[in-house]
Design a protein that fits this description.
This protein is mainly α and 266 residues long. The chain folds into two domains: 214 residues, no CATH class; 30 residues. Keywords: Membrane, Signal, Transmembrane, Transmembrane helix.
Length: 266
């Protein structure tokens, strides 16, 4: 799998598959929660999208449920969000992550580390590569906030700084806002870009967890025995061939073991 193909699959997972599940669940539960709280469906729907995407940007002025039914439903959705998020982090930490692990340490850093940039193989590399990773994540968050924050500000008629600070707080989970920033979004365009910011924030968080909890700790990726990774579109051609070869080797090893047992029993 090439780096570009791997990145495209990661983007598809987090920007198409993950949002689709969030929208579907918010659509299904949005009606009941709106009815139980006597609010418009749109408010219930947008509130649940905030919960499911972890959006720090307020998509609706409705503060959330206060009745028993609404509280129960919102917490059920929140639990579903944890499971959905964990599932996508797990998929990211498997075969989809492999192309990113082929990135070599850049020449200007080879004096203090070697090998692959996001894979630690010695105790000394862990802290160094985590430091580099910290800087990379900061750069990505700043870039995303600069672009999406500007679009949010333009849609809402805010100053650029207001949009940038809100978007940056969303993607870093700091939830920062300037005192002059309105408490809620007032336009459809603002809600759209606010939702996009929430989705991108979830994607960044998921990929950061996947990288920091597996390769940067020196753990190896393996998916030979998992049925989920064999779903259509997850594995590349090379990865499927590798899994097939491993399965064939395992079968042959099993056959040899049986033959050995037969010989020993004679």
């Amino acid at each position: 799998m090439t780096k570009m193909a791997g990145s495209a699959k990661l983007a598809f997972l987090w920007l198409i598959v993950f949002p689709s599940k969030c929208v579907l669940l918010a659509t299904v539960i949005g009606g009941p929660i709106a009815a139980s709280e006597d609010v418009d469906f749109l408010d219930g729907f947008l509130y649940l999208l905030q919960v499911l995407t972890g959006a720090a940007v307020p998509l609706t002025s409705w503060a959330g449920p206060s009745g028993t039914g609404g509280v129960i439903l919102s917490n059920i959705v929140a639990i579903a969000r944890q499971i959905i998020l964990a599932y996508h982090i797990g998929i990211s930490a498997g075969p989809l992550l492999e192309p990113l692990l082929d990135v070599d340490v850049p020449p200007f850093l080879r004096g203090c580390m070697e090998g692959k940039l996001l894979v630690a193989r010695t105790a000394g590399e862990v802290s160094k590569k985590f430091g580099v990773f910290f800087v990379l994540v900061g750069m990505v968050c700043t870039f995303v906030a600069a672009v999406l924050g500007g679009l949010l500000a333009a849609a809402e008629g805010w100053s650029y700084e207001e949009g940038f600070v809100m978007a940056l707080g969303a993607v870093t989970s700091a939830n920062t806002v300037l005192p002059s920033t309105p408490a809620t979004l007032a336009t459809g365009g603002g809600v759209f870009f606010g939702l996009i910011i929430g989705l991108v924030a979830s994607a960044i968080l998921g990929i950061v967890i996947a990288l920091a909890s597996v390769p940067l700790l020196g753990f190896d990726l393996t998916w030979n025995d998992t049925p989920v990774a064999r779903a259509p579109g997850v594995l590349s051609k090379e990865q499927r061939e590798r899994v097939a070869a491993a399965a064939t080797k395992e079968v042959h090893s099993g056959e040899k073991a049986v033959e050995l047992e037969v010989v020993e029993s004679m």
